[in-house]
Amino acid sequence: MKKDFYHTIDQNSLAELKDRGSRFLAYAYPIQSTDDFKNYLQQLKKEHPRAVHHCFAYRLGLDGNNFRISDDGEPSGTAGKPILGQIESKGLTNVLVIVVRYFGGTLLGVPGLINAYKTATAMALQLTPIIRKAVEVNYQLQFDYMQMNDVMMLVKKHNCTIIEQESQLFCHMKLGVPLNRLEEFLYKVNYLRGIEINKI
Fold first, then answer.
1. Which among 9, 11, 105, 184 is least buried, having the fewest CB atoms inside 10 angstroms?
2. Which helix (H) or strand (E) holds 15?
3. What's the angle, vertex CA 151, arms to CA 135 and CA 9, rounded to 5?
4. Cβ-contact 103, 52 below 8 angstroms
5. Per-residue pLDDT tens for 13-68?
6. What is the mean pLDDT of residues 129-154?
7. Residue 161, class by beta-carbon neighbours within 10 Å (0-12 exposed, 13-18 middle, 19+ buried)?
């Protein structure tokens, strides 16, 4: 059964945890692609060049199989896994959490590390609203400028997301169409003459 909705976070958040001198800065981000993840990780490595670890986990898509974790030099299984565990326990997807660690001179041991990464992640995810989003299918539309009003009415009525728009004599629009409104939307678009529509 295909899902019509998924849960993700609404905005970026930051939480800080201190444990025996070590600082754990947990950054949570809503993401759409692995490119988003790469950009955020690069950005944090520039912001925190003196941090000893930049551990992370992300989950993308709806099937639960698109995820990645990294302990970034911490003992295996002590960072990425507990971070991902928190994302999964809240039933979230399209989410990235990066935890930046500044070492404080005291070794925390495996249980201590697991707890610190888990807690820092949980704190960051508590600080940002969790939202329900419609699963969308992307389409590209091409139409005459004179049809702009009709197209915009359909877009609004079916709660579509405009990804990209170019308006000249001939208009191009990239849309995210909610899966649960797709059939109805395609029927209405085909009812309007002269609109070219393609799935992306």
1. 105
2. strand 13-19
3. 25
4. yes
5. 999 999 999 999 999 999 999 999 999 999 999 999 999 999 999 999 988 899 99
6. 95
7. middle
